[in-house]
Amino acid sequence: DAMVIQNPRYQVTQFGKPVTLSCSQTLNHNVMYWYQQKSSQAPKLLFHYYDKDFNNEADTPDNFQSRRPNTSFCFLDIRSPGLGDAAMYLCATSRGRGRETQYFGPGTRLLVL
Amino acid sequence: GNSVTQMEGPVTLSEEAFLTINCTYTATGYPSLFWYVQYPGEGLQLLLKATKADDKGSNKGFEATYRKETTSFHLEKGSVQVSDSAVYFCALSSGNTPLVFGKGTRLSVIA
Questions:
Q1: Least Cα separation, residue A9 to chain B (angstroms)
Q2: Does residue A107 carry a pLDDT above 70?
């Protein structure tokens, strides 16, 4: 089945130690998104790629970066994780922007010690 | 700007009860409307969607109708099961703007 895959499902890192989360998709969608979701809240969009075009949300901290080396893969890099960055990180894809349906991966839960 | 307002939870129901989760929206243009469900520890799954006025989305016994006149997209199910316990998010997308989510409604169904 076509799907959105996130690895790992759980990630533990230390305060200030860089960490990378990965997302891959077999849907061949043009757009890939990264969301941060904290407990009992709605997902918060960090940034998205439309093909190779990177779009950062205005309030996304500089500590968060992303790479999309090809259509299938997208990475979220947290350069110096703080305790406040502990959250679920969700990757999503859509065929296009705007009114298109977004399909989500299972998420990676990040714990910062 | 675009926004979604959905009823605050938590909602607790007995098995086989009728469910309604209210959702209203504000949007420019003609949005698409979605309901996503999130089971504990998992990502969001698309439950149903509607792309134009009077469309009815349905899936797994859940339904929602796109009501332009009342700017609403209420989620309903005639008989809930314990397995429906989850958080439900109403969302919209319009133009080239990303998805806008409501705050989510936690549903607990007890046997």
A1: 9
A2: yes
